[in-house]
Amino acid sequence: MTTLGLIGAGHIGSQLARLAVANGYEVVLSNSRGPQTLADLVAELGPLARAATPQEAAQAGDLVVVTIPLRAIDTVPVEPLVDKVVIDTNNYYPQRDGQIGELDDETTTTAELLARHLPQSYVVKAFNHIVAADLTTDGRPAHAPQRRALAIAGDDATARRAVAGLIDQFGFDVVELDTLAEGWRIQRDTPGYGVSRTAPELAADLAAARRYRDM
Questions:
Q1: Residues 6+ apart with CB under 8 A from 95
Q2: Between the CA of residue 23 and those of 8, 89, 133, 167, what are the distances in Å?
Q3: For 162, how many CA atoms within 13 A lie in the half-sphere containing its CB?
Q4: Out of 31, 66, 135, 175, which could bridge 15 as a Cys pair, Cβ 3.0 to 4.6 Å?
């Protein structure tokens, strides 16, 4: 049985946990406040879920989701994530995260910052451009008409395939960007951010995206 480790259990993390359990995954949840604060969520999710520390969630996960505020990514454990696929859901909100010069001047992206922190992991950007509540309501079976699509970005094709498979199981089509550096195309304020799109529509939105400096 595949285990999904979650570092962060807020709006996105808790919804991904619900989807994972519904699809037969074991889930190990963690947050910065301690496993005891996740008791209600674990009780809701049932026997496939347990709470742990971030270190333990990183160790247990076959796939690991980092879904914490960007300002806290330096707290993500490094060693237990070596050679693992790590899903980054983050967006940059200066009012929450503080000003980050490399993001302000667009010389890097949020997922590239996490990849730099995790140099021996396979980071894939995903789940950052969908409202959390939509994750458990908008999924549809494969080949369903008007099936919603989600974008992913990653440097490693095998890692992208693993995440694409997860997203398909969760009920969404996938549009791939083949480098983390291209992840800016689905950051906040771009055409595909936050809206429901089919795969062809989302591909068009990604192509139409413009850097902040060009908006």
A1: none
A2: 20, 20, 17, 11
A3: 20
A4: 135
